[in-house]
Every structure is written in C-alpha cells, then in structure tokens.
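Data deposition worksheet. Section B asks for the primary sequence of the deposited chain exactly as it was used as input, without tags or linkers unless they were present during the calculation. Section C holds the resulting structure in token form. Section D is free text for depositor observations; keep each observation to a single sentence. Incomplete worksheets are returned to the depositor.
Section A, Depositor: J.P.
Section B:
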Amino acid sequence: MSAIVTVVGNPRSGSRTLTVAVRAAEAALGSAGDVIDLAELAPHLLAAEPVAAVEAALGLVKNADVLVLASPTYKATYTGLLKVFLDRLGHRALAGKRAIPLLVMGGAQHALAVETHFRPLLVELGAIVPTPGLAVLESQIAELDAVLKPWAEQVSAQLPARG
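Section C:
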C-alpha cells in the first residue's frame, strides 16, 4: 500500500479545508493517511532552530508516495502558510511522488487557481500531478460527495492502485 499524507494549509485548526481534504483523499485513495494540519505548526515554521514537530511533518511528506495538499483560496491562490511549509522542502523533494492539489474557495472565479497557481508549485518540487486538481466551492461542501465522486473517478487511473 502506498504511503499517503494529507497536508492542510488553512491557518485555522480543524477547518472546512481539513474536512474536504480528508474526504477527497478517502474518495480518491481510500484513506487520508497521515494528516498534517499546518495550523498546529504555524508558530514554528519560521523558527530559527529546527522544531521536532515541523521536522517530523517534513519527514512524512518526504517519505510519502502520494500527497493530498489542500488550502483555502487566499488572494486567488493557496495560503502563505502552505507555501512556507513547502519552501522548507529541498529542490525537487517531491520527485516521483503523486501530488493532488485541492483548493476550497468562496467563488467560482478562483476555480482555475488549482491549475494555474498550485499545480506549477508542485511540479517545480518534482511532483507528478494528476489532472485535474480539485476546486471545491464552499457552497458545495454540504453535498461534497456529488463533487468528489466524479472527480475521484477521473483521477483514479492516474494514482497508485489502492492496497
């Protein structure tokens, strides 16, 4: 079975983004695997000295086979919190890993941000990014299964087989 890690870049702990990310991972992969809620690590991400919890989270990401990376949409893209965390990874640290970008947004005008802003970041880190990424409107969260099922069916062929 593939090692799965879900990373949530919402600055609010226990956010709707976390809920969507876990449910999307379960729909596409059968499990969310290890879940990293960056809200819990936020005070330590820019610390001058290494912090064990941050290093452990980075280790999980580096050892994952598949990553689900989720963020609310801030300023038409992902959060700075998620970017700061990903900036801690080395050059091409995600090489050979599958990475699924997911954004939760208030308005449909930001739907392309998954492909135009988030995907390039993950590709720059070396990830293989299945098409399409997932854009979920806040108004769709109440009926999330209706969004997740067709998306998961579309990307499943691009993901490792479920164990």
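Section D:
The chain has a mean pLDDT of 94.
The helical segments are 16-29, 52-63, 80-87, 113-124, 144-155.
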